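QA checklist item 7 of 12: single-chain prediction sanity check.
[x] sequence parsed
[x] length recorded as 381
[x] structure emitted
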Amino acid sequence: MTSIADSSSLYFLCGGSRTTELVSYIRRAHALIECRKTNDVDDLEAHTRRITAQDFAKTCIASNVLDTQPSDPDNLFAMAGFRGTDGVDAFSLVRRLIEGKLLTSWQCQQLLAGRYKGFFLRHYKLLDVYHSGERTRTYRARDTFLERNVWIEVLCSRFAEDENNRTWWLSRLRKFSSLTHENLATVHDAFVQDVPMYVSLEAVEGVSIADLVNVVGPVPFKLAAMLVAQAAAVQAYANHHGLFFGQLDSRNIIAALNGCLKILPFDYQGQEPSVAWDYRTSLGGDDEVLSARREENPIGDSSSGFHFLGIFLVYLVSGKSLPEGVEPSVFTVQERPDTPQLLLDLCDVLFSPQQHVADSGVATVLLEIAQQLAHFAQRQP
């Protein structure tokens, strides 16, 4: 059996969870989502009616947001592909800048509103807002020193004023960054000396599970098994190191373009996500305390980690959130009557883990589930 420490090798089990079929499926979904984003440009047209192209150019230059800083508005027009400024309206200029990838839609939206400051956090240039929550805001950004794209999670200033909040935020990130696994996004850097406090992580190019299901719908059984197998493998790894991912949002789980499932540590407190449980430690203390607590309760707080995998499986297969109080396997069969029995059986295990963990241990059972799913995917046509 694959060891806990080597659980990432499940990628390559039976051809791996990075099969051409899974990669193609994710890439098609990504292309559909990118096509929908072109509508963002058209949505800006109403905002351009209140400003001239010259005034927009001046605001853009004042922001220093362009990689190559234009010397004057005429230079900016030339960068956008115009031979002059006559007859060019603000919307035409904005469209050219976005289509030429000189600016993002979000950057243009800020500039059209007259906001020419706030595009930088030290050496990180903000490109777009990924999510805005009650306590944090997440951006797509560019590391101008190392010339790579990253994600930035900023702790809201109001929230950061409280020491307990700062401690919670840092503790969560430290726990996450202490793990090294191919299914976990890598934490690059953190700034906590002053507000705004933020952390930067590797940018994962792909689609969130929320977008995947919303755009494409229920995922084919074979591919759903591949994705949940990866989630179970990293859950086993985390549990082996005294942690677990209980509450995770479907926007916090990314299907990367190479077929790798990536878990992000971003906070979505106060939201109503389609797949969600709390991120926290399952056990704490020295080895003696850990052993005593595991002997007393083999599941511990990690039962919600099993539940998360069950919710994740149902969400992928049915394309819908599991309603409260509804039997998972019954709901899945209602939505997709042809659901294979193995997936229904695993649902029962994930929602009633106490019956299966006592003898083997949490991490071992999680890894066995991952292997069952990987083998199931291999056998599917």
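[x] summary fact logged: The chain has 16 helices and eleven strands.
[ ] second reviewer sign-off
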